[in-house]
Design a protein that fits this description.
The structure holds 3 protein chains of 3 kinds.
Chain A (H helix, E strand, L loop, with lengths): L4 H24 L7 H19 L1 H7 L2 H24 L14 H38 L9
Chain B lengths: L2 H9 L1 H19 L3 H22 L21 H31 L4 H14 L1
Helix pairs in contact in B: 2-3, 3-4
Chain C lengths: L6 E2 L2 H19 L2 H29 L2 E4 L10 E4 L1 H28 L5 H20 L3 H20 L5 H31 L4 H11 L3 H18 L8 H7 L2 H26 L5 H4 L2 H22 L3 H21 L3 H32 L10 H4 L1 H15 L5 H15 L3 H27 L14 H19 L2 H15 L3
Parallel strand pairs in C: 1-2
Antiparallel strand pairs in C: 2-3
Classes of the chains: A mainly alpha, B mainly alpha, C mainly alpha.
Chain lengths: 149, 127, 497
């Protein structure tokens, strides 16, 4: 543990900041540069850093892969559901104008929800990809010549 | 060759970069036997297209497309948005390709295409 | 395409969104049974929507839908015309027949804890293929192309043989190259025209056609789409991918994916470049015809030598794609109608053939001709369905293959290309040889020792097989409906020329 003290201290300072920055990019995305894609990746980076420092097992306790898989599907449903909701409210698919009384308000709410769905899916997809590959490395030790199944 | 020709060619710098990246990536995909290197080549090939689209959106003297007082010329944001989508698709493709390579290595014990072809050829003979 | 005759139809977007949203629902359910029920229900709902759209399109000529209420050409527009409606109905019907068929077949070929993901992937693939067909936006088409391609790579890699993995990997490399070529082409066109809307591209194209940029775009688009279409000699990914994929996946992809790619080729030539006589100004016609004829002969020849029945039919698919492209390349109304009719008929015939093969693999566990000896006596009904499809592939009268080849030959003779007509007939003889090989093995050879008992397949597999086989028989016996549809579609496509 001793040789990792520096890494642990630095990452403990960094991880909250990364998460905070991800949230900024996410929620500032509707009136500045940013959005769900970028925020989702930054958010996932915090977890990947955590897993690199504290080990994949600890990371899986913090956010189990069943949770990321559920979030993955939920994000897509939020995005698509918004579109269906606007249709039910009398607009076209993904026509945000009908979501509020004013056009500006409607666009604001619409893009906010949709980007939230995107962020959720992207971050959980990134974490899932990381879990899948890192879990495989531990369990199967790939890329070693001569391994036969 | 006159000076004008040279400046004309340099003015197309982004296209030169795109073509070099594209051909390099394409060559790696075709020529390399190692499956991981093939994926790297594929990525370089895709990145050349990203560079192509992004440089295409640049408008001379235009700034980043964010509304602000006193600015009238903006770069075209549409190619950037398109490429954001293409990048995400690229990430998904790479992740899937790597996952396939992991499983190929697990079941064949190799990630060299020529070795895998020998194994597959032997299997066909038996079957 | 904002002419006042067409009108907005919200079913157009639901056609794509319903299967797209059902996929994450399958992931959330996490159970094989739940995912199967969802996928089946959704795929049949999609058939309903598709038929409703076909009726509307035949009535109105064309429907469109603007996403988010943004007007074309700024927003993404979905457009459906008669050709598109035909393709949508084929894809939806094959998809809906595949789901019930998949239940038993998949349980035998795929690990139980992965089955729910299999259905999620099937739905994504279905949604991608439908999306390609309805979209009127060149870049949106790329996105759907990648949705369907990525899910089909996964589906192929699920095959039980380890060669499925390498087949999927090769397809991934080739498919991604093809899709990337396509977006390079779209980018070059965008650079010149400033639009991505296909109808808008069509109107602007004549003004910019004499530039190297657009010439390069056309080249990139053609090569990229041909890769996805598996047009000879860019077909190398197809045989192994179809051979080692799970049987249902082969049936689904063989019947739909290549048809949708053919449709993309059609859209590119006749919509985006619709105002330009491509065949007069560019050497596109001879190139496509040579490729098509080469596919018809060389792929059929390869099919003759195969010991594996699935790979034999895969090579046959490459050959049949040749006929479809030949029809498109003739650039006459009759030729185009022939190509479109063959698209429909080939989907029915290959769907039937691969469903039958899937049932044989299910019962015997093998797909080599040696192990299928005497299969005609062990599984008479399944083999009979295969024979129907096989006769169609040859083009025997009263089968759908005859209708489309007749139409193609008529078109060729209309243009007075006599040698080409002879080549079409000659290549059909090659089909006789490979179909005869299966026939001989199935009926004339004794079953291997200890394998004389009749083999059974569950009703969930034989029902979809026979629905498709009966549809094949009907399409052969009464071709008025498909031919009229194809002629109407061809007329509309040629209208711009």
């Amino acid at each position: 543990m001793t040789e990792k003290t520096l890494l642990i201290v630095v990452s403990k300072i960094l991880i909250p900041l990364i998460l905070l920055f991800a949230l900024y990019v996410q929620f500032h995305g509707d009136f500045g540069p940013g959005g769900g894609f970028q925020a989702g990746v930054i958010f996932a980076v915090a977890f990947i850093l955590y897993a690199l420092i504290f080990g994949i097992r600890t990371a899986r306790k913090v956010i189990p892969s069943a949770v990321t898989r559920t979030m993955l599907a939920l994000g897509v449903l939020i995005y698509g559901g918004t579109g269906v909701a606007t249709m039910l409210m009398g607009g076209e698919y993904l026509d945000y104008n009908v979501l509020a009384d004013t056009v500006k308000g409607g666009q604001h709410i619409g893009i906010f929800i949709v980007e939230f769905g995107v962020g959720l899916t992207v971050s959980s997809a990134m974490i899932t990809i990381f879990y899948t590959f890192s879990g495989h490395v531990n369990a199967e030790l790939p890329f070693r010549k001569g391994d036969k199944p | 060759m006159s000076w004008e020709v040279v400046t004309d060619l340099l003015g197309l710098l982004n296209y030169w970069v795109v073509i070099i990246l594209m051909m390099a990536g394409f060559y790696v995909v075709i020529a390399q036997d190692n499956l991981v290197k093939k994926i790297v080549g594929l990525n370089i090939f895709q990145v050349s297209v990203f560079v192509f689209y992004i440089s295409m959106g640049k408008v001379s003297d235009g700034t980043a497309p964010i509304l602000e007082e006193g600015i009238e010329v903006y770069s075209n944001p549409l190619p950037h948005v398109l490429i954001l989508t293409a990048i995400v698709v690229g990430v998904a493709t790479t992740a899937l390709a790597l996952a396939l390579v992991v499983r190929i290595n697990h079941s064949y014990g190799s990630i060299e295409e020529d070795e895998i072809q020998v194994i597959e050829h032997d299997e066909e003979e038996i079957a | 395409m904002s002419d006042p005759a067409s009108f907005s139809d919200p079913w157009l977007i639901l056609l794509v969104v319903v299967p797209l949203l059902a996929a994450p629902v399958c992931v959330l359910l996490r159970s094989a049974g739940g995912a199967w029920s969802t996928a089946t229900a959704v795929s049949w709902a999609v058939v309903g929507i598709a038929i409703k759209l076909l009726i509307t399109v035949l009535d109105q000529g064309q429907v469109y839908y603007r996403i988010g209420g943004w007007d074309a050409p700024w927003g993404i527009e979905y457009v459906l015309d008669p050709v598109g409606a035909v393709v949508v109905v084929i894809v939806a019907v094959i998809g809906a027949l595949t789901m019930p068929y998949a239940k038993n077949s998949v349980e035998k070929e795929i690990r139980h804890d992965r089955i729910y993901l299999f259905y999620a992937m099937m739905l994504l693939c279905l949604s991608g293929l439908l999306g390609i067909t309805v979209t009127g936006d060149a870049f949106n088409l790329f996105v759907f192309l990648e949705i369907s391609s990525l899910s089909s790579y996964v589906l192929i890699s699920l095959g039980s043989d380890r060669r499925a993995l390498t087949a999927a990997f090769r397809y991934l490399i080739m498919g991604t190259l093809g899709a990337t070529f396509y977006i390079i082409g779209v980018g070059l066109m965008y650079q010149k025209t400033g639009t991505l809307n296909m109808a808008d591209l069509r109107t602007i194209m004549p003004a910019v056609i004499d530039t190297h940029t657009v010439h390069a775009a056309l080249a990139f688009l053609t090569v990229g789409i041909s890769l996805k279409l598996a047009l000879f000699p860019l077909h190398l990914w197809l045989p192994n991918a179809y051979t080692f994929a799970p049987s249902v996946v082969t049936a689904f992809l063989a019947a739909t994916a290549t048809k949708v790619s053919a449709y993309v080729l059609l859209r590119t030539i006749y919509t985006i470049f619709g105002e330009i006589d491509l065949f007069a100004d560019f050497p596109l016609k001879p190139v496509l015809i040579v490729m098509a004829v080469a596919a018809m002969f060389l792929a059929s020849l390869s099919a003759i030598w195969q010991q594996n029945i699935k790979r034999m039919m895969a090579y046959s698919s490459v050959a049949q794609i040749g006929y479809i492209v030949l029809g498109f390349a003739l650039a006459s109304e009759a030729g185009l109608a022939g190509g479109i009719v063959h698209m429909v008929n080939h989907a029915l015939m290959k769907g039937t053939a691969f469903f039958a093969i899937g049932a044989m693999v299910f019962a015997t566990g093998s797909m080599t001709l040696r192990d299928l000896q005497g299969i005609g006596r062990r599984m008479p009904w399944v083999t009979a369905a295969f024979v129907i499809a096989g006769l169609g592939l040859i083009g025997v009268p009263l089968t759908p293959g005859f209708i489309s080849k007749w139409q193609l030959v008529t078109a060729v003779l209309e243009l007075e290309l006599w040698p080409l007509a002879a080549l079409i007939l000659l290549s059909s003889l090659l089909a006789v040889i490979y179909v005869w090989r299966v026939f001989e093995v199935a009926y004339l050879r004794p079953a291997p020792l200890g394998h004389h008992k009749p083999a059974e397949v569950p009703l969930s597999m034989s029902m979809p097989l026979w629905i498709l086989a009966l549809a094949t028989i009907y399409a052969g016996a009464n071709a008025t409906f498909t031919l009229n549809l194809a002629h109407e579609a061809a007329q509309q496509l040629m209208g711009g020329l």
